[in-house]
Amino acid sequence: MPSTSIKKTEYDPVSRILSVWFVASGKRYEFEGVPPETYAAFRSAFVKGRFFNDHIRNRFRYRRVPGEDDS
Questions:
Q1: Average pLDDT over residues 48-63
Q2: I need a surface site. Which of 9, 11, 46, 60 has the fewest CB within 10 A?
Q3: What are the extents of the domains in the chain?
Q4: Rounded to an integer, what distance in angstroms lies between the CA atom of residue 53 and that of residue 20?
Q5: Please, which residues have CB within 8 angstroms of residue 8's CB and are 6 or more apart in sequence?
Q6: Cβ neighbours of residue 70 under 8 Å, at least 6 residues apart?
């Protein structure tokens, strides 16, 4: 089922960085130290927004990645 809140994700298993783009803002955030098992569960979750809120948000250090629209 496509997510209504999460547009796209990318994961680097070496650095354990999860990149998440959000639908509403279009902004990208990087979450550090995300275990491969957490990413695998996230990818297979039926409701990705709920999984993100329950298992990733506020559990991992993150930063907003500046985009082309930022001045």
A1: 97
A2: 46
A3: 35-65
A4: 12
A5: 20, 21
A6: none
Reported residue count of the chain is 71
Strand order in the sheet with 62-65: 6-12, 17-22, 28-31, 62-65
Residue whose token pair is 């550090």: 32
Residue type, 49: G
Reduce the DSSP state of residue 18 to 3 states and report it: strand
CA 16 – CA 50 distance, rounded (Å) = 21
Q: Are 44 and 57 in contact (CB under 8 A)?
A: no
Residues 44, 51: Cα–Cα separation, whole Å: 10
Question: What tokens were used for 12?
Answer: 């680097």
Quickly state the pLDDT bin for 32 (edges 50, 70, 90): very high
Token pair listed for 6: 């999460």
In this model, does residue 71 exceed pLDDT 50?
Answer: no
The tokens for 1 are 């089922």
